[in-house]
Design a protein that fits this description.
Radius of gyration: 25 Å
Bound molecules: flavin-adenine dinucleotide, 2-acetamido-2-deoxy-beta-D-glucopyranose
Number of strands: 23
Domain Amine oxidase: 37-471
CATH topology of the largest domain: FAD/NAD(P)-binding domain
CATH architecture of the largest domain: 3-Layer(bba) Sandwich
Keywords: FAD, Flavoprotein, Oxidoreductase
Pfam families: Amino_oxidase (PF01593)
CATH superfamily of the largest domain: FAD/NAD(P)-binding domain
Structural class: alpha/beta
Strand content: 15-25%
Number of helices: 16
GO molecular function, one term: oxidoreductase activity
Shape: globular
Family: Belongs to the flavin monoamine oxidase family.
Helix content: 25-40%
Distance between the termini: 68 Å
Number of domains: 2
């Protein structure tokens, strides 16, 4: 990186744009926006491809992004435990001789401490305490088997997508009035996607599930390492960044991204700016949907449609530390389900004080998603704590559940640098529509969890999109599309494919009474004449 005040080409920019700040901007070849898994991996890919002139700009005082942990509770010696606020599982490991989840590879490289997550190790509760309704899970699984095959037909025959709810209904699975069936559905669906089946795509949810759980493996491992899950990303960063590398700008908030076919200028809240040949933006869909960052010029409509259509879910883990000598759960089970008459109301609890996790810790957490997350984000910690204690005392007995000695939960929906937890594919968004989320706009590129068509929502999505985009931009910086780049080329060499117009399947002639279309909605001259034939 060099300062433009001493560069000569930047002077031309100043004259051309009459923009004084440009003069003071730091010059670099690539600006990487965000130091989460995607940003760090993109920068590593640049570095691996001999592009060392880059700057990484990060809101927080440390790298990792949504891969984030904190200390919580105390052990008997007064040391704090580490708990994961964001991602917790490596989901999908490897097939026998086939592909391996890159996150699993890295978890092994850094010896992350983890335990097999046994989703069948479940104890079930209702309003009156323990009651065994796990057998009802078979109904969901039977319906899923139909829905996944059906999704394959939708995908391969280019049929119209549906909501996952409609798909379950068509499979004859209708749990609405049964709290037990509803919590099992929540456990099988919302717990993974952080959204209800009602607002989620059938086709792409199944495709996403297949990519990770059939493409790698159905196994998931819960990471509980005192160094934190993001040890792997800090470790990778240290392979190409020095401890106080001037190319890593921490605690720096991007407020404005100005782009042209020639370059990108980033303006930060502190008034500093960076002028780059290319930029890779790894901000979450939640951040892109917020108005926290301004694009200049405003992003084109095809890009805005993609950003506003994709969804951000919220996944909230609510941590308790109970006195370790007052443990009230049975330590043979990893998951406890609570069938509330209100779907999604504190449906899952996970004790961490279990033999293979954090024994003796007294730590236990509840999980809620999106709608319930928004609700508890808007109320006090005290209120949430007493709601959950009321549930626990109802199912375990008042006398058995003591007051916790520590309590905490993050508010992902309100966090300005995340605005939610991870993305979700809504019904009816086509592959082309999603491709527009990944596509570059001039020299501004996009990467992250949400831009992955097959692994959205997962760390492997962030990693693979960061790597792919970093490599793509490196070839452009190095003067062309390399031979090794096998991705589809757009019209302009090196650009991502994009669809400026998303086509439906209905031609204008078909808006006719034989399709139930009786009243013209077109203005004179814009469409067919009123009245028809
Ligand atoms: C609660 C939760 C549970 C999850 N569980 C799992 C799981 O079990 N398994 C799994 O595989 N995945 C899980 N995920 C998803 C996973 O964490 C994400 O996919 C991944 O961490 C996203 O990485 P990213 O680099 O794409 O985005 P981010 O991590 O969001 O990186 C973007 C970076 O940009 C920065 N930024 C944002 N705005 C600005 C700005 N204006 N200026 C400067 N910098 C900015 C942010 O601070 C951030 O560091 C979970 C996520 C959450 C939140
Ligand atoms: C960069 O190269 C190193 C060393 O070969 C490798 O371990 C790493 O995975 C590469 N990173 C990316 C993003 O390709
Ligand atoms: C998972 O838990 C179930 C129920 O307790 C048990 O039968 C099964 O053996 C466990 N699986 C593994 C791999 O531990
Ligand atoms: C998902 O995998 C199942 C089982 O292999 C298959 O039947 C289905 O067609 C796949 N669906 C999609 C959308 O890939
Ligand atoms: C964003 O930056 C551009 C170029 O530096 C500038 O013209 C524009 O006014 C800025 N917009 C905002 C909202 O700050
Ligand atoms: C805990 O669950 C196991 C397995 O179901 C059971 O054998 C054991 O008796 C239970 N322990 C207590 C204290 O209820």
């Amino acid at each position: 990186m060099q300062n433009s005040a001493v560069g000569d080409d930047s002077l031309c920019d100043v004259i051309r744009n009459h923009a004084a700040p440009e003069y003071a901007c730091t010059r670099t070849k690539v600006a990487v926006l965000g130091a989460g898994v995607a940003g760090i991996t993109a920068a590593q890919a640049l570095s691996n491809n001999s592009v060392s002139d880059f700057v990484i700009i990060e809101y927080n005082a440390e790298i990792g992004g949504r891969c984030r942990w904190t200390t919580f509770g105390n052990d008997s010696e007064g040391n704090q435990y580490t708990v994961e606020l964001g991602d917790n599982w490596v989901q999908g490991t490897a097939t026998e001789d086939g592909p391996e989840n890159p996150i699993w590879t890295l978890a092994k490289k850094y010896n992350l401490i983890n335990t097999f997550s046994n989703s069948s190790s479940v104890q079930t509760y209702g309003e009156n305490g323990q009651v065994d309704y796990l057998a009802k899970l078979d109904d969901f699984e039977e319906a899923y088997a139909y829905v996944e095959q059906d999704a394959g037909i939708i995908l391969s025959e280019n049929l119209q997508d549906r909501s996952f709810r409609a798909a379950l209904n068509l499979a004859g699975y209708k749990p609405m009035l049964d709290p037990e069936a509803s919590v099992l559905e929540w456990y099988s669906f919302d717990f993974e996607y952080a959204q209800t089946p009602d607002v989620t795509s059938q086709e792409f949810t199944v495709a996403n599930y297949n990519s990770t759980f059939y493409g790698f493996s159905e196994d998931s491992y819960l990471v509980h390492d005192p160094r934190g899950f993001n040890t792997f990303i800090r470790g990778e960063a240290s392979t190409f960044l020095t401890p106080s590398d001037p190319r890593l700008l921490l605690s720096t908030i991007v407020t404005n991204i100005s782009y042209t076919p020639e370059g990108v200028t980033i303006t930060n809240e502190d008034g500093s700016c960076i002028s780059a040949d290319y930029a890779i933006c790894t901000f979450s869909v939640g951040v892109l949907q917020s108005d926290l960052v301004t694009f200049d010029p405003p992003l084109p409509q095809w890009k805005r449609i993609a950003i506003e259509t994709f969804q951000m879910g919220i996944y909230t883990k609510i941590f308790f530390q109970f006195p370790p000598d007052r443990i009230f759960w049975n330590s043979s089970y990893q998951f406890l389900l609570y069938a509330s008459p209100q779907r999604g109301y504190y449906p899952v609890f996970q004790p961490l004080d279990l033999p293979d996790f954090l024994p003796g810790s007294g730590i236990f957490f509840a999980t809620v998603v999106t709608d319930q997350s928004r609700r508890i984000e808007a109320q006090s910690d005290e209120r949430t704590k007493s709601e959950i204690l009321a549930v626990l005392r109802q199912i375990f007995g008042d006398e058995n559940v003591p007051d916790p000695i520590d309590f905490m939960y993050p508010r992902w929906g309100q966090t300005p640098w995340a605005r939610g937890s991870y993305s979700n594919w809504p019904p009816g968004l086509t592959l082309e529509g999603h491709q527009n989320l990944r596509a570059n706009v001039d020299r501004l590129w996009f990467a992250g969890e949400a831009t992955s068509q097959q692994y959205f929502g997962y760390l492997q999505g962030s990693y693979l999109e960061g790597k792919g985009t970093g490599e793509r931009v490196a070839t452009l910086v190095n003067g062309g599309l390399g031979e090794g780049d096998t991705r589809v080329e757009g019209e302009v060499q090196g650009d991502e494919l994009r669809y400026e117009v998303l086509k439906g399947t209905t031609t204008i002639e078909e808006y006719a009474p034989y399709n139930g279309w009786y009243v013209s909605t077109f203005q004179e001259g814009e469409g067919e004449e009123e009245g028809g034939s």
